[in-house]
Design brief:
The chain is mostly helical. It is built from 12 helices and no strands. The two termini are about 70 Å apart.
Length: about 475
C-alpha cells in the first residue's frame, strides 16, 4: 500500500520570496546570455543619459539663475535703489529745513520743494515696479511712504508761512512791527532820558554849596564847568523842545544870578544868592515834570529779554519781557510827565506787547508744525529701512536658491562621473572574462579533439592489425 507524503502549507511570504529569487535567477541568466555588444551599448547609453541629464540640469540652473537675478535686479534691487534715493532726498529736505530754520532765508523753501519732487518721483517709481511685479503689499507701503512725505511737505509749508508771519528778517512781519514799536518807544522816552542832566544838576548844586561855604577858587571852577556841561547836554536833539526851553531859561537865570552874586556884597549878595536858588528850583521842577526815572534801564531790559526769546524761543523770556513792560508802565504812570504823554507812551507799550505776544503765539503753532514734521519723518525712515531689508532678504534667498541648484548639478555630474568610472572598470572586466571563458572552452575542445583523434588512430591501427590477421588466416585456409 502506497503512503502519501505529508502536505505542508506554505505562507504568502514564502511564495513572494521564492518568486523574487526566481526573478533574480532569471535576470542573472539573462545577463549571462546578453551579448557583449548589447552590454557595451547599454553602458554607453547610461553614460550618455547621465551626461544629458547633467547638461539639462546645468542649462536649467543657468536659465533659472539668470531669470532670478534679472527679476531681482528689475524689482528688488531697483526698489532698493529707489529707496536709497528716497533716503538721500529726505536727508536733503531735512538739511534745507534746518538751513531755513537757522537762516530764515526763503531760498531754502524752493530747494526743499525741489528735493521733495525728486523724492516723490522715486516713490512713484517704486509703486510702478511693485504693481508691475504684482506686489501689492510693496505698492501700498510705497504709497504710504509717499503720504508721509506729503504730510512732511504740508507741515513745512505751514511752518514757512508761520515764520513769514513772524518775519524772516527783523524788519518784516510781526517781528518788524513790534521792533518798530520798540524803536518808537525808545525815541519817545529819549525825550525824558535826562539822567545825565539830573546828575549834572546835582553836581552844580554841590559845587554851588561848596563855593558859597568856602569861597574857594577850585569850587568856583567846578561850578562854571558844570554850567558849561549842563548847557551842552541841553543841546541834545532827543530832548523835548518845551523841556529844553524851560531848562535854558532857568539856566540863564541861574548864570546871571551867579555873576551878580560874585560882583556884589551884603544884602545884594544875599539877594543874588536867593535868585540863584530860585533859578535852580525852576530847573528841578522842570526836571521832575520831564523825567521818567529808570525808563532807559527798563527799556534796555525789555529789549534784552526780547532778544533772548528770539534766540532761544523759551517761555521764561516771554514772562521776563512781559514783566519788564509792566514795570516800565508803572514807571511812566508814577512819573511827573503830562497825562497826554503818559497815554501816548502807554499806547506804544501796548502796541509793542501785543505784537510780541502775537509772535509768541505764532511760535507756539510753529512748534506744533515742527513736531508733526518730525513725526512724519520718523515714519518715513522705518519704511525705507523695510524696503532695504526686503531687497537684502530677496538677494540672500536668490543666492541660496542658486547655490542649491548648482549643488544639484554638481551632484548629478559627480554621479555621472562615478558611473562612467564604474563602467570603465566593469566593461573591460566583462570583456576579458568572456574572452578567457572562450579561450578556456577552445582549449578544452582542442584537448577533446586531440583525445578523440588518438582514439581514432588507435582504433584504426587495431582494425588494420585485425585485417592482417584475417588475411593470414585466409591464406592458411587456402593453402590447406
Amino acid at each position: 500500500m502506497r503512503t502519501c507524503a505529508p502536505y505542508i502549507e506554505r505562507s504568502d511570504g514564502q511564495e513572494v520570496i521564492e518568486k523574487l529569487q526566481i526573478n533574480k535567477t532569471k535576470r542573472r541568466r539573462n545577463m549571462k546570455t546578453t551579448t557583449l555588444s548589447t552590454k557595451l551599448i547599454m553602458a554607453f547609453a547610461v553614460v550618455v543619459v547621465l551626461f544629458c541629464a547633467v547638461i539639462g540640469v546645468y542649462h536649467r540652473t543657468v536659465v533659472s539663475v539668470n531669470s532670478s537675478y534679472k527679476s531681482l535686479i528689475d524689482t528688488e534691487i531697483a526698489t532698493a535703489d529707489h529707496a536709497q534715493g528716497i533716503l538721500k532726498y529726505m536727508l536733503q529736505c531735512r538739511r534745507n529745513e534746518k538751513d531755513f530754520l537757522l537762516r530764515s532765508n526763503a531760498k531754502y523753501i524752493d530747494k526743499l520743494n525741489g528735493n521733495y519732487e525728486l523724492l516723490a518721483g522715486k516713490v512713484a517709481s517704486i509703486v510702478t515696479l511693485a504693481n508691475g511685479a504684482g506686489d501689492n503689499k510693496t505698492a501700498e507701503s510705497a504709497q504710504e511712504l509717499g503720504d508721509y512725505a506729503k504730510t512732511y511737505l504740508e507741515k513745512f509749508e505751514n511752518l514757512a508761512d508761520g515764520m513769514k508771519v513772524n518775519g524772516l528778517t527783523s524788519s518784516e512781519g510781526l517781528q518788524g512791527a513790534f521792533r518798530a514799536a520798540a524803536h518808537t518807544i525808545m525815541v519817545e522816552l529819549a525825550k525824558f532820558e535826562i539822567d545825565v542832566i539830573e546828575t549834572e544838576y546835582l553836581l552844580l548844586r554841590r559845587w554851588e554849596k561848596d563855593y558859597v561855604r568856602t569861597n574857594a577858587k577850585k569850587y568856583r571852577g567846578r561850578l562854571l564847568s558844570s554850567l558849561e556841561k549842563y548847557e551842552t547836554f541841553l543841546k541834545s536833539k532827543t530832548l523835548s523842545t518845551k523841556f529844553r526851553n524851560n531848562q535854558e531859561k532857568a539856566l540863564a537865570a541861574y548864570a546871571d544870578a551867579f555873576l551878580a552874586y560874585e560882583s556884589s556884597e551884603g544884602e545884594k549878595r544875599t539877594a543874588a544868592y536867593n535868585a540863584m536858588r530860585a533859578a535852580a528850583h525852576d530847573q528841578e521842577k522842570s526836571l521832575k515834570s520831564f523825567y521818567v526815572p529808570g525808563a532807559a534801564r527798563t527799556v534796555l531790559m525789555i529789549r534784552r529779554h526780547e532778544k533772548d526769546y528770539l534766540l532761544r524761543r523759551t517761555d521764561k523770556y516771554v514772562k521776563r519781557t512781559e514783566s519788564a513792560v509792566s514795570e516800565l508802565e508803572k514807571l511812566i504812570t508814577s512819573s511827573g510827565i503830562s497825562k497826554d504823554e503818559k497815554e501816548n507812551l502807554s499806547d506804544l507799550l501796548e502796541n509793542y506787547l501785543s505784537g510780541f505776544k502775537a509772535l509768541v503765539a505764532q511760535d507756539t503753532q510753529n512748534k506744533v508744525y515742527v513736531a508733526e514734521m518730525r513725526d512724519a519723518v520718523h515714519k518715513i525712515e522705518p519704511a525705507i529701512a523695510a524696503f532695504l531689508a526686503k531687497a537684502e532678504e530677496a538677494t540672500k534667498k536668490n543666492a541660496d536658491t542658486s547655490a542649491g541648484q548648482v549643488r544639484i548639478a554638481l551632484i548629478i555630474a559627480a554621479i555621472a562621473i562615478l558611473v562612467s568610472i564604474c563602467m570603465a572598470i566593469l566593461i573591460p572586466r566583462s570583456i576579458t572574462k568572456r574572452i578567457i571563458q572562450i579561450i578556456t572552452g577552445l582549449s578544452a575542445a582542442s584537448e577533446q579533439v586531440t583525445s578523440a583523434s588518438s582514439q581514432v588512430a588507435s582504433s584504426s591501427q587495431q582494425m588494420a592489425e585485425g585485417s592482417s590477421e584475417q588475411a593470414s588466416s585466409l591464406e592458411e585456409t587456402s593453402s590447406s
